[in-house]
Amino acid sequence: xxxxxxxxxxxxxxxxxxxxxxxxxxxxxxxxxxxxxxxxxxxxxxxxxxxxxxxxxxxxxxxxxxxxxxxxxxxxxxxxxxxxxxxxxxxxxxxxxxxxxxxxxxxxxxxxxxxxxxxxxxxxxxxxxxxxxxxxxxxx
Length: 140
Fold this sequence. Notes:
Layout: H1 9-60, E1 80-82, E2 86-87, E3 97-103, E4 113-118, E5 121-122
Antiparallel strand pairs: 1-3, 2-3, 3-4, 4-5
């Protein structure tokens, strides 16, 4: 009587198929969570800018034209392009402002999207991330 050592080709094929099926479900969810964390970076950055803009407005009577004029030191987001500070709905920096970050490059198949904040906070009307609910940290 001989003892069997190792695996048969059928057993290995079954294991490979099982791993493939599990990976088919896990990889898209993993990619979405990675992209969600990158989007959260934009929301954190813009929240910091919003708070600094309010402090600047309290001191100067107008909103800052450049983020470099604000009282916080932070690095630009790694995965987003920061647009210029623009006048908001009133067309004057004395009353309103708007800042948009654009996600470009490899974004896990989500394509280019934007995140916009104003003096009111997250601007879902002008942000294209609102259409990507699985990666939008605001879930609106």
